[in-house]
Design a protein that fits this description.
alpha/beta, Rossmann fold, five-stranded parallel sheet, three-stranded antiparallel sheet, 50% helix, globular, binds 2'-deoxycytidine-5'-monophosphate, cytoplasm, Cytidylate_kin, P-loop_NTPase, Cytidylate_kinase_dom
Amino acid sequence: MSKQIAIDGPAGAGKSTIAKKLAGDLSFVYVDTGAMYRSIGLYMLKHGIDIYDKAAVEKASQNADVRLKYIDGTQHVILNGADVSKEIREEQVGKAASVVSQYGQVRSNLTALQKKLAEEENVVMDGRDIGTCVLPNATLKIYLTASAEVRGKRRFDELKAKGENPDLDTIIEDIKKRDKADMTREISPLKQADDAVLVDSSDMTIDEVVDKIKSLYA
Ligand code: DC
């Protein structure tokens, strides 16, 4: 049976950076499930579908073909044949993903795809519902979190480094709103699985978190 490490937690806790590094060190495949929800969000924005119209989104999502492709070990997201890996990182796409990920049909399609990937390969998979829904029998489950203030400051520094002029308070408020939406949605809300290990990265470096997870896996 394949080995599965599930990493869940709120936006900005460092999941993707840590999951990517861990997967590289263990020679596992990294699966970023948020990227899949982002692709569905992007599809709706591109096709002018009202993301708040559940029926319209569920119907349109049947025409969105999301695939993952690995080039030199890096995950690329292919939406109906086009590589959208960069586009899905835009702020508005993240917001759309948070909305469309509430809909049952969207979740069941992507969950099926994620389960299939994890059956075929050893994976480090990150998201919101991996330990609770997608891989309930994962070898190791981590719930990675950090305070909203620390996550906001990390995002602020990232945007500054890109030459933007962000407002820290607005970023922290946005993070809190996203947390609330992800934690209170009806289907598969973000929550720590009963058998997940809680890791708070507020005062830890990336390497410290990776080492901690490796020691838990060993
Ligand atoms: O991790 P991220 O910011 O790329 O995720 C984008 C959105 O997708 C996030 O607001 C919640 C949703 N998501 C989800 O509902 N379930 C997952 N397994 C991964 C992401």
